[in-house]
Amino acid sequence: MPRPAPDLDAVFAALADPTRRRILEMLLEDDMAVTDVAEPFEMSLAAISKHLAILAAAGLISQDKRGRVKWCQLDPDAMRHASVWMQSFGQFEAINLDAFERFLTQERLQPPEET
Description:
The protein has 6 helices and 3 strands, in the order ααβααββαα.
């Protein structure tokens, strides 16, 4: 049975937090035990567990118990769905920020026209 498409609001809300983005980056490497996920952060295990619950609710990770240890693994489906949604905006031409900055600088240096 196919899984339903993830809720984009939940995905983007989960991705809005830098701690959760860092956790996802860590899980790109390999599955990790919750205690290993928590190790590099200066916060409690309970706080990390809340971040993991948000990521799991958004469908970005899955968790399972192996013996006494709870493991986390990246689940790319939600990210893929968000990526497809964002790519639909690729039809717009990218802004050349350097050219735009030069234009703004030029506009600031030119004296205003007298009327």
